[in-house]
């Protein structure tokens, strides 16, 4: 009984910060469904929405804390002005930019937000340091093995899986637009930007919204602090880890997808709509 209580306390200690970090990592996945490709699987679509809500609820205090500081940093006048400008641009987008094939202002805005928040998804891999610290606290081997390690694995798998699916959706969109030859280059660029973002978040403690709330300090840090040997080495290693894990998970997803498709199609030869709910990530 004592071991169970110890395990519950240890896992409960992680719930709030894990929920917040995973919520930030799921934002680009949700946006990728809107911007690049709506999944054919309702389970994936609704599951992502439910997971977003489930991770936000335990993090409401953190959410409002950061929201309050963002408003304070920007100033109420700036925030109200930004809202007014956003509404005006949305109106222009609706009434003027309706031509077929034109990227709307809302699309570009969503794209920029998606890219800005995308490093939060692979960032969860660096949270392994919290597991190391918890182990150093002297928790029992059973608590670490049967409670904490599975919790961390599920957390990192969900976060990094969101990253992989987001980038795959972008690749699908590029191919649909006739830009399939740029998929590999785009993936490499995104991995590089994510490595930079992870370093800024883990070591310099910047957030995605500092692009708007604290751009001067962010630019200064990028120009001055990222050219040292240590930051470059850390970012290169991070890039290599992200790239390697991305390709492994991408191949697994594609293999599962092909397996699912072959099974579904063999069972629905006479039913053209039987596979409409399958997960299609083929390019």
Describe the structure.
This protein has 283 residues and is mainly α. The chain is built from twelve helices and no strands. It is globular, with a radius of gyration of 21 Å. The model is unreliable at 268-281 (pLDDT under 50).
Rg of Cα set: 21 Å
Poorly predicted spans: 268-281
Described by its quaternary structure, the protein is single chain
Largest sheet: none
Q: What distance separates the N and C termini? A: 51 Å
What does the average pLDDT come to? 80
> Which structural category do the helix and sheet elements fall into?
mainly alpha
Say how many strands there are: 0
As a percent range, the share of strand residues is under 5%
User: What is the count of DSSP helices, taking H or I runs of 4+ residues?
Assistant: 12
C-alpha geometry: globular
Percentage of residues assigned to helices: over 70%
N-to-C order of helices and strands: HHHHHHHHHHHH
Features:
283 residues, mainly alpha, 0% strand, disordered C terminus
Summarize the model shown.
The protein has about 280 residues and is an all-alpha fold.
Set out the fold topology:
Layout: H1 2-35, H2 42-56, H3 60-74, H4 76-95, H5 105-117, H6 120-123, H7 128-136, H8 141-176, H9 183-202, H10 210-213, H11 215-224, H12 229-267
Helix pairs in contact: 1-2, 1-5, 1-8, 7-8, 8-9, 9-12
